[in-house]
Amino acid sequence: MKLSLMTFTMALDGLKKILDAPLLTRMIGNSGFHEADIMELEFQVYGEEKLLSELKQNNIHCGCLITNQPFYVQPESVKDGVEKALRLAKIAGAEYLMIVPGDGSEQDQKICERLTRNEIIKIAVEHYQQACIMARQYGIKVIMENTPQAHKPFSAAKDVLDLLNQVPELGLAFDTANFRT
């Protein structure tokens, strides 16, 4: 089994200037982890070169890069966003790229509320299939996480399995805190 620290909530502290790259990496290391799942946003907030340098200096491996992609709000920009995230994941040495379908914004929610469950899943399938094809050339595995957004059907086992069955190359990071029945 491989354990990794997900820095998801720490990205907000970076935006508030509570954390910087040295402190983030020391916190990860002091927690006993040598691997972290890091948000693409954190590379933007701390600076790509600075964060990569601090990860290396503190012997922390980025196992998974996490990116939010606007599947529903700006679907035409997803391909470029995934390509950018894959390049960063490769530079960071990540084996996985976790793609979060959307951002949970008010606009994202309103669009999804107008769509049916099947339409939401169909859009996600198209984007994940494309991402999996793109990721092959980087040697990176695309994964998703069951997501606890009420306006998207990605937290119940049935819905997640439906999506995974339609995109066999897609992996799953299962978060028990996000699971709904």
Q: How are the elements arranged and paired?
A:
Blueprint: E1 5-6, H1 10-15, H2 21-30, E2 35-39, H3 40-46, H4 48-57, E3 61-69, H5 78-92, E4 96-101, H6 106-114, H7 117-136, E5 141-145, H8 157-166, E6 171-173
Parallel strand pairs: 1-2, 2-3, 3-4, 4-5, 5-6
What is the CA-CA span between the terminal residues? 26 Å
Proportion in β-strands: 15-25%
Sum up the overall morphology in one term.
globular
**Oligomeric state as shown:** single chain
Q: How are the strands of the largest sheet arranged?
A: 1-2-3-4-5-6
Which regions contain 5 or more consecutive residues with pLDDT less than 50? none
- Tell me the total number of β-strands: 6
What characteristics describe this protein?
181 residues, alpha/beta, six-stranded parallel beta sheet, 6 strands
